[in-house]
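Blackboard transcription, Thursday session:
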Amino acid sequence: MTGGIAHIGILTVSDRASRGEYEDRGGPAIDSWLSEVVSSPWESCPAMVEDDVDGIARKLIELSDRCSLVITTGGTGPALRDVTPEATESVCRCMLPGFGELMRSVSLQSVPTAILSRQTAGIRGACLIVNLPGKPAAIGECLEAVFPAIPYCIDLIGGERIETNPERLAAFRPGQRPAGTGDA
Amino acid sequence: MTGGIAHIGILTVSDRASRGEYEDRGGPAIDSWLSEVVSSPWESCPAMVEDDVDGIARKLIELSDRCSLVITTGGTGPALRDVTPEATESVCRCMLPGFGELMRSVSLQSVPTAILSRQTAGIRGACLIVNLPGKPAAIGECLEAVFPAIPYCIDLIGGERIETNPERLAAFRPGQRPAGTGDA
Amino acid sequence: MTGGIAHIGILTVSDRASRGEYEDRGGPAIDSWLSEVVSSPWESCPAMVEDDVDGIARKLIELSDRCSLVITTGGTGPALRDVTPEATESVCRCMLPGFGELMRSVSLQSVPTAILSRQTAGIRGACLIVNLPGKPAAIGECLEAVFPAIPYCIDLIGGERIETNPERLAAFRPGQRPAGTGDA
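(Written on the board underneath:)
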């Protein structure tokens, strides 16, 4: 898509952070992780929304229209107000179940309650949307696990190019083919 | 929810056991496992039903109205009469894919046919529903794997409190927050 | 079902191979793997189709009407033309998520981009349909992982009997019960 700069949305989903009842720690944790790992030019597009399925879906549409990657934090558990995966699924053309499987399997090494997370990932247009849990501790371990596959995924759907600092985290591109060809 | 006693449904799904053609071994295996592990007061609510999607769904609704946890056994395979996951999905507000992933991954260490199980888990109201396979041997290994996350899951959806005997199996509660808050 | 010979469909899904722009390597790789592993009589039913959801679905219906197993290759990634999982789901009575989980987890040991594959498996009538990626290197590792469970799965849905060469790959049948009984 555009040559120069990659746009990355960071969406904090939380009733309490949206009402200012507590400070958002998930969004800044994602921003700081990306600053450490992404070596090509990128612009952070932060946003915040309550745990409401329609409100989250609207924000995801807005962000995915101008970003190649949107990372959400929060709203992935089993509670009644946890609806981020539903909102994500409602705006995506297709889902990528391998992201949720791998993130749960990695988090399971830290806490047995990792299986309660319904976090997933999907494609909308030329944007990959990835759900992360709300807890800052889980954000790093999830991103370490799935990020190596993200730049190539964005290539395949025609998004902006992302490079990583290979000494920090090596992004994997299995062989260059034109975006949009159906043989992956 | 109520302070004192937790209600746990145990639903055996089997054409042959329902017709009395063979003895139900799955339900008693679950009951005996729970008796060993759960240390807080609980009441077993056993039930049995044929492999029929509407009949299973009706039983799941009945049981989940008065239980905080319903564990099914049987009907999770690929055969035509295996419809427990479909019935479960039809009555749940949301599904928790991490349960099925972890149970299959654990059973896979015993038998390669573990991947044939479609067992899953989901939330209905203030009740967690978990599918187990029909084979008694698989019941123990599946419960050992997922039960550490179950009491906290039930807290989050406003169900009854369950404590386990920590020397036998430690339930994990990552930090006490009020039930129903959307940040898990 | 029939006593003697098992019919196995091998469906290559690829725009470019269908147009003759490059040689299909996935289909022959599956055929050659099966020739090495399956010891009972079997007939290969090869087919090729473009990355079009309706066209793939029609081919899957045709093949599953006369085969006990259909293996697809290609079209499982995140790109716009990758629609094999959607076509598979559209023709199946039920899905078997354990196949995709295990195949991704095995491929992840080779490449971090394994999580981008949406490959799955499902049942249509007396036929098991399994999606494999398009890359020949991934085909072997995926089949090695899931094939031990396939002959028993086909027994359970009333398909044709498949035996494997136990010195090469042992198929697992946990105990003989009549096909179609709902207790797996």
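Lecturer's comment: The first helix of chain B runs from residue 15 to 18.
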